[in-house]
Structure to design on (279 residues):
């Protein structure tokens, strides 16, 4: 993935809450279990694996799917090591690099099953990655919020999901005891408007985030391209994103298939912009 320091530990008033990871510019993805008792606007500290501490804020909590988003103010001079994302398939090898402490065992194993459109009651659907462990772990609650990496031989390492807390995993896996599960990256992109391609480009161009909701203004068909070296990558990236949206609208592909690819295109644009800023 190019970097190993993309995951973070979350804390509030000195207490460890759980894990999370940089998923897009300005945002860290985590689970609702990791921000339990907090509300949007509450301060939260992000401890990177490299030892830096960033000040974040609970941005949005999606209780119905068990996911939460934390925002922070990025410094263009710092590489936040946003990881490559992709889909998991049954039989993939996986590992969870975030551990709740230095002596905690690492989680790894194989993907047991992919269960699309699981939901709790009337909640929104979640694409669930059912995980098998290569060795038993008594309690993996402390690993919640950390990324799940694909580590299959012959495939490029990539983040495919987020570790769900045991209670949520059990509910999404029909009450199975000792269930271990991850939410697919595509579910987060579908749930949070802040992670949409349009909103990420608004941030890149210095515009305020677009709020989600039925009254939110529709994004324009064309965005003004930034100046400098970024412009060519921006133009080609926007052409790809528009093609993705057309393909989805025509039913050629599903939104779940496009989410990791859209994030990859956006990361390329942002990386180029940040290189230009540093120069």
């Amino acid at each position: 993935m190019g970097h190993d320091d993309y995951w973070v530990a979350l804390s509030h008033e000195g207490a460890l809450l759980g894990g999370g990871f940089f998923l897009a510019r300005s945002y860290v993805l985590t689970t609702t279990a990791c921000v339990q008792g907090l509300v949007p606007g509450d301060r939260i500290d992000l401890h990177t694996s490299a030892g830096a501490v960033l000040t974040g804020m609970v941005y949005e909590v999606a209780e119905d799917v068990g996911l939460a988003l934390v925002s922070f103010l990025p410094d263009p001079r710092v590489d936040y090591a946003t990881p490559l994302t992709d889909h998991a398939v049954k039989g993939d090898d996986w590992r969870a690099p975030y551990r709740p402490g230095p002596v905690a065992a690492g989680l790894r194993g194989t993907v047991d099953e992919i269960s699309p459109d699981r939901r709790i009651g009337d909640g929104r659907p979640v694409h669930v990655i059912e995980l098998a462990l290569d060795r038993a772990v008594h309690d993996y609650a402390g690993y919640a919020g950390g990324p799940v990496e694909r580590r299959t031989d012959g495939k490029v390492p990539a983040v495919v999901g987020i570790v769900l807390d045991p209670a949520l995993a059990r509910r999404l896996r029909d009450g199975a005891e000792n269930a271990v599960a991850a939410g697919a990256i595509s579910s987060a992109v579908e749930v949070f408007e802040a992670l949409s391609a349009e909103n990420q480009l608004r941030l890149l161009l210095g515009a305020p985030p677009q709020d989600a909701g039925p009254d939110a203004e529709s994004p324009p068909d064309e965005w003004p391209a930034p100046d400098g070296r970024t412009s060519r990558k921006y133009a080609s990236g926007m052409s790809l994103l528009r093609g993705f949206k057309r393909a989805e609208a025509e039913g050629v592909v599903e939104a779940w298939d496009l989410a990791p690819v859209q994030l990859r295109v956006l990361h390329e644009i942002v990386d180029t912009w940040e290189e230009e800023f540093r120069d």
Observations:
- The longest strand covers residues 107-118.
- The chain has five helices and twelve strands.
- The chain has three domains: 7-72, 93-189, 196-210+217-278.
- Confidence is low (pLDDT under 50) at residues 211-226.
